[in-house]
Amino acid sequence: MNVLVIGGGGREHAIIRKLRESPRAGRIFCAPGNGGIARLAEQVSIGALEFKKLADFAAENGAFTVVGPEVPLAEGIADYFISRGLPVFGPVKAAARLEWSKSFSKSLMKKYGIPTAGYEVFTDAESALEYVERAARPLVVKADGLALGKGVTVCESREEAREAVLGAMRGKNGPAGETLVIEEFLTGPEVSVLAFCDGKTISPMLSSKDHKRALDGDLGPNTGGMGAICPSPRYTRETARECQEKIFEPTLRALLAEGLDFRGVLYFGLMLTPDGPKVIEYNARFGDPETQVVLPLLKTDLLEIMTACAEGRLAELKIEWESGAAACVVIASGGYPGDYEKGKEIRGLDEIDEASGVWAIHAGTELLDERIITSGGRVLGITAKAPNLSEALVKAYGAAEKIRFDGAFYRKDVGR
Ligand code: AMP
Ligand code: GLY
């Protein structure tokens, strides 16, 4: 079976790496791909929102389509493919709403008793500001819609909360911020759990932990993710049981009760609070960089799982995982997540010994005349697998040291 993967970041590189292991996979295409994906898949220059062109391409090439990023899902790419009778991995727009509208996901959680932070929704600045004056602090101000991870502000003071409200209402996040969710501040370790879902059955993957801040010690601005580990040491068997019972199963039941057919990856961003695990956010896709560490530990054929999700027969599969650990250290361009330069030549990639269980996942790279150059803020995710987390970290850091490009930097405390 041929496969078309949509996207061009580290997540899609990790997905394609895994798909290449499938004996059922024929030709693998990626639109648009990147410098690392270029070595594993045939690159197709069609944009993620050019639904007709993508569907024509998938139809001509008999391809099963896998959607990586959230924007095409929020714009209804799965609905379009289904209307054309084309097989696709990724939820329809109405189900992906769990990610593209925070006010929707919060009301769903409230209605079905799924643990999450207390909240209020506002559509005008006046009532939001009035609420800020009387609510307990700290507060978390969130834009309702997709905002590239930039729509959330944790506000210690009332002044900060006022600014966050005014900024959002003034259009800092575009239409995403016209509706606001203001939430109670929660504390505790954060864990990501991604789950395969076919609309009727949910199968959680191994837990993982993202490192969102730019600098060591969880300091500096939020980023798209500076590293990840799998599994999360904080996610015990007991916690997993509690999440299954109070969060995962109830979310699936809520979707079913609302007539929402979720086929794809349902991502649970969780906080393990003193009152038990609570949902911080849902995403309707694989996480980035969580995918880079979770998929290497998957034993079952990924393509088999994805087609089973699309066809609603996930219950037939037994999904198996390796018992080891994986770690990913992201190497970023100097200045990221602010302004940074592109086009820097990357050296040292051929010094990474893949046979020893460590490899470079490409995020922001491009292949130019046989050279790999930087083309984004997050450039590479050096990823390793080992029998335990400390060995995986030693391997990943050992290989990260070999990578050189102007301005390269990475966190030194991933997994600690
Ligand atoms: P989100 O985009 O909703 O995942 O939020 C981004 C980050 O903001 C999360 O990973 C948390 O670190 C933080 N955050 C979001 N909501 C809350 C909350 N209610 N309490 C504390 N921190 C939060
Ligand atoms: N790692 C967070 C996300 O993918 O949204």
Could you tell me the CATH topology label of the largest domain: D-amino Acid Aminotransferase, Chain A, domain 1
Write the CATH homologous superfamily of the largest domain: ATP-grasp fold, B domain
Oligomer: single chain
Q: What is the tally of helical segments?
A: 12
Show unreliable segments: none
Helicity range: 25-40%
- Rg over CA atoms, rounded to whole Å, is 21 Å
Strand order of the largest sheet: 16-15-10-11-14-17-21-18
CATH class of the largest domain: Alpha Beta
State the total count of DSSP E strands: 21
Q: What would you say the CATH architecture of the largest domain is?
A: 2-Layer Sandwich
Small-molecule components bound: adenosine monophosphate, glycine
User: Would you tell me the structural class of the helices and strands?
Assistant: alpha+beta
Mean pLDDT: 96
Task: Tell me the count of domains.
Answer: 4
Strand content: 25-35%
Cα(first) to Cα(last) distance is 41 Å
What would the principal axes of the Cα set say about the shape?
A: globular
Q: How would you sum up the major sheet?
A: 8 strands, antiparallel
Topology:
Elements: E1 2-7, H1 10-19, E2 28-32, E3 42-43, H2 51-60, E4 63-67, H3 70-74, H4 77-83, E5 88-89, H5 93-100, H6 102-111, E6 119-122, H7 125-134, E7 139-143, E8 152-155, H8 158-169, E9 180-184, E10 190-198, E11 202-210, E12 213-215, E13 219-222, E14 227-230, H9 237-257, E15 263-273, E16 276-283, H10 290-294, H11 302-311, E17 325-332, E18 358-362, E19 365-368, E20 371-374, E21 378-386, H12 389-400
Parallel strand pairs: 1-2, 1-4, 2-3, 4-5
Antiparallel strand pairs: 6-9, 7-8, 7-9, 10-11, 10-15, 11-14, 12-13, 14-17, 15-16, 17-21, 18-21, 19-20
